[in-house]
Specification:
By secondary structure, this protein is of the alpha+beta class. Helices cover 45% and strands 12% of the residues. Strands 3, 4, 5, 17, 18, 19, 20 and 21 form an 8-stranded mixed sheet that branches. A 4-stranded parallel sheet has the order 7-6-11-12, covered by helices on one side. The longest helix is centred in the middle third of the chain and has 31 residues, at 508-538. Residues 64-440 form the Circularly permuted ATP-grasp type domain.
Length: 831
């Protein structure tokens, strides 16, 4: 920000003039606005082993890193050259290996590295491009020169976070963003999508592109869902894909659909348990065979993680002259590979001035600063260097320049590392994102910059010489390709956008996730209503009949496994010892399998697995629900406070249901979500009847009937229709047989029948149509509806008991038939 003499640099003068006075109160308001935007957008970063929880809010500093146009031009040219060089190296190492044969690279450098995937040798990707997306970590020395610290050639992460940083900071610092003529990021992502479209190995009007993620527990899963939505491609996990006849297929509701391009976020080793890492459960068995056959393009190509190893870095200047006939434009930090005798001797003699790092990525040990070692530690390190010299790199200890960071109401310096992204062009060469993901250290003197170690992030502003082109990236991409949204130039002019709905293209895993999302939402609501019923009566002792109504509620909690039976029996006898402690466990104990907290946690985890299919508002509501169900302080656990909290949770669940009904397109995804809701509501209705012993003589007790009407959300309907106290027959009709009551079992079955009839039919191959699971499920629902049409079940206790037992067996079978129909892909989709 400032020169060595303390003067403000020219490009920072423009920014500071637009920012105005650094009033702590005004900056605090801006930071609060940024924090709320990140919170609402659900921007998270997963930190493994964090005692505060793995999913943490994304750390963003408001003050961007500013780079003038002239400085950026040099960075851009240098990185395009570097990406071209690394791609040429990969083409040789996985091809003729002339660099090894000629002695320009030691053979041990390649064959000692587990990053070299022998199974991929000889597999030539589409167009001969191995490196489709590349990122470089850059550091600026105190003299202003940029150096390359590391190359990300396997699955470079962070581009989505950079886009989100821009969306937030440009809204918080709107005036400064405009005055500084900041170059926009949108054209880079348009070019990235265009490149992916052109990678399809087969001639097709609309290639199927997927983003392969390890799943919701990966540290950057938010970015995977974000990019898939922004690029308009399908987010998949390894289990969503299968290989048949050396062709990759996506498992969808309509069967198996061929996949053309895979943008992967899986490390090389994990991509194929058949030929790479046998213990991987994240990849796709047979993927390497499909790549060899040329039926699918994987970006980046399998095996590109090889040149992330530091062992190659000392050879890059020589290889650049040999392969490109040019000098390396952006140097790397000086390194010495200890596998060579002269270099090893230098490292040992100058250990105090060097950092010792693993030569190969698979070694994964921490860097060791030679200057910080005691005498015995130094001797032990030298012994390890001499025992296995090829495993170590000596690196010059580079002092990092600092970037201004807003901390504790003032600007403070922090060391920075900037990651810049490049995408291959279809016609050759690379395009560079004008900006990137800047990260800074958590403390002033720490030279290791890592998000896993508490570091923060910044937006990176590349300033143009004149008015910036285009418009800022949209703050929240919602899953429509750029050429359809109209926020970027239309670059895919060669094909028309197909606006016809693709009803059968929903991945089966997503359908399954939405199905269980509906079930967990309804299960949480049912649990919540029972708990609210209990706390309502505990907090209002003056209401007539409270004690009588508490008895069936406690029976129901026993039936559903929320409290132990002995406690329920004591509550019935009027003692109630330990009741509140057990109730609090039924609300807050995440380890209790039937507690409210456990059910909401399941809902949140399931939603995370299908996050790319949920609207931003739906995700915000689900995140709010998860926060509201966190354990309360002891002061907040009194009966009245608990009742208010449960009321808030009911409201949030109602908001989620409202978004499902009013904002989701009526496609297969919505149908599976609603099927889960209807099925679970039906199962819960039966549990209410059986748990309150409606089939026994106690079923005539007005207290039992009042509780059933309350938990079935049908109290007002009953009062409007019958103008009388609760009577057994009309209550049973309203909750079981009335197809106009949204809470009745008959209503759920009616909607289930309509949903199943509208779902795409899965391939049945050699099976006869009348033997398909979906046909069996429809027939089972119709038979169940016939049972509810029998008048005896609401008049005769014996007939009611038989009917409830039969229905309790039938409803779970519908779930089994759906799973068999749509999730076991034994056959390809018929041509």
């Amino acid at each position: 920000m400032v020169t060595g003499g303390g003067r403000l640099r020219p490009h920072w003068q423009r920014f500071m003039g637009a920012l105005g006075a650094l009033d702590p109160s005004l900056m605090a308001e801006r930071w609060e606005a940024a924090r709320r935007l990140l919170h609402q957008n659900g921007v998270t970063y997963n930190i493994y082993g964090d005692p505060q929880g793995m999913e943490r809010p994304w750390p963003l500093d408001m003050i961007p890193l500013l780079i003038p146009a002239e400085e950026w031009d040099a960075i851009e040219a240098g990185l395009i050259q570097r990406a071209t060089l690394l791609n040429a190296m990969l083409a040789d190492l996985y091809g003729p290996q002339d660099l090894i044969r000629s002695g320009r690279l030691p053979a041990a450098l390649l064959y000692s590295d587990r990053g070299f995937q022998r199974a991929c040798h000889g597999a030539v990707p589409t167009g001969g491009v191995f490196l489709h997306l590349y990122a470089a970590d850059l550091a600026r020395a105190p003299d202003g020169r940029w150096w390359v610290l590391g190359d990300r050639t396997q699955t470079p992460s962070g581009a989505g976070y950079a886009l989100e940083n821009r969306a937030v900071v440009s809204r918080v610092l709107t005036d400064a963003f405009k005055d500084c003529n900041v170059r926009t990021l949108g054209p880079f992502f348009t070019a990235l999508r265009e490149m992916l479209v052109r990678l399809a190995p087969r001639p097709t009007r609309d290639p199927r592109i997927v983003l392969l993620t390890p799943g919701p527990y990966n540290e950057t899963y938010f970015e995977h869902a974000y990019l898939a939505r922004h690029l308009g491609i399908t987010l998949v996990e390894g289990g969503d894909l299968t290989v048949r006849d050396r062709q990759v297929f996506l498992k969808t509701l309509s069967g198996l659909e061929p996949v053309d391009v895979i943008l992967r976020r899986l490390d090389d080793d994990y991509c194929d348990p058949l030929e790479l890492r046998a213990d991987s459960s994240l990849g796709v068995a047979g993927l390497v065979q499909a790549v060899r056959a040329g039926t699918v393009t994987v970006a980046n190509a399998l095996g590109t993680g090889l040149i992330e190893s530091l062992s190659f870095k000392p050879f890059l200047p020589m290889l650049c002259r040999h392969l490109l006939g040019e000098e390396l434009k952006i140097p790397g930090v000086a390194m010495w590979w200890c596998g060579q005798e002269e270099e090893r001797t230098y490292v040992v003699e100058h250990l105090d001035r060097l950092v010792i790092k693993p030569a190969f990525a698979h070694l994964g040990s921490e860097p060791v600063f030679g200057s910080s070692l005691f005498r015995q530690e130094r001797q032990d390190l030298i012994a390890r260097l001499r025992a296995r010299p090829a495993d170590f790199i000596g690196q010059e200890q580079l002092g990092l320049s600092t970037v201004p960071t807003w901390i504790d109401g003032a600007l403070q310096p922090r060391p920075l590392v900037m990651r810049v992204y490049l995408a291959a062009k279809p016609e050759g060469g690379y395009t560079v994102m004008p900006g990137g993901l800047t990260r800074m250290s958590a403390t002033a003197g720490r030279l290791i910059v890592s998000m896993q170690r508490g570091g923060g992030s910044k937006d990176t502003w590349v300033m143009s010489r004149g008015p910036a082109e285009g418009r800022p990236a949209p703050p929240r991409p919602q899953g429509v390709p750029a050429e359809v949204r109209g926020t970027e130039p239309r670059t895919v002019a060669a094909r028309d956008v197909d606006v016809k709905p693709q009803s059968g293209d929903l991945p089966s895993r997503v359908a399954d996730g939405l199905f269980w999302l509906g079930r967990y939402a309804e299960r949480s609501e049912s649990t919540l209503r029972i708990l609210r019923g209990v706390y309502t009566r505990l907090s209002d002792g003056t209401r007539p009949g409270v004690g009588d109504e508490l008895v069936p509620l406690m029976r129901l909690m026993d039936w559903t496994g929320m409290v132990p039976r002995d406690l329920a029996d004591m509550a019935e006898s009027g003692t109630g010892r330990g009741l509140r402690q057990a109730l609090q466990g039924a609300v807050f104990d995440g380890g209790h399998p039937n507690s409210l907290r456990a059910n909401i946690q399941r809902l949140h985890r399931t939603a995370a697995g299908v996050r790319d299919r949920l609207s931003l508002d739906m995700w915000r509501v689900i995140s709010q629900l998860d926060r509201q169900s966190e354990p309360a302080s002891a002061r907040s656990r009194i009966d009245t406070a608990m009742l208010l909290r449960l009321d808030d949770l009911i409201t949030t669940l109602a908001a989620l249901a409202g978004l499902e009904q009013e904002s989701m397109t009526r496609g297969p995804g919505w149908r599976f979500l609603d099927i889960g809701r209807r099925l679970e509501r039906g199962i819960n209705s039966l549990a209410l009847m059986r748990g309150t012993r409606i089939c026994d003589a106690a079923g005539d007790d007005p207290a039992v009937l009042e509780v059933l009407l309350e938990l079935g959300e049908s109290f007002m309907t009953y009062r409007e229709r019958y103008y009388t106290t609760a009577q057994r027959t009309p209550v049973l009709y309203l909750l079981l047989c009335d197809e106009t009551n949204p809470r009745a079992l008959a209503y759920q079955l009616s909607h289930l029948a309509r949903h199943l009839a509208a779902l795409p039919r899965p391939p049945v191959a050699n099976l006869r149509v009348n033997q398909s699971p979906i046909t069996a499920a429809i027939r089972l629902i119709e038979d169940t509806r016939e049972i509810l049409r029998e008048p005896e079940i609401i008049r005769d206790r014996f007939a009611l008991r038989n009917a409830l037992n039969s229905l309790a067996d039938r409803l779970p079978e519908i779930s089994n038939l759906l799973a068999h129909a749509y999730f076991s892909h034994a056959f390809s989709r018929p041509a």
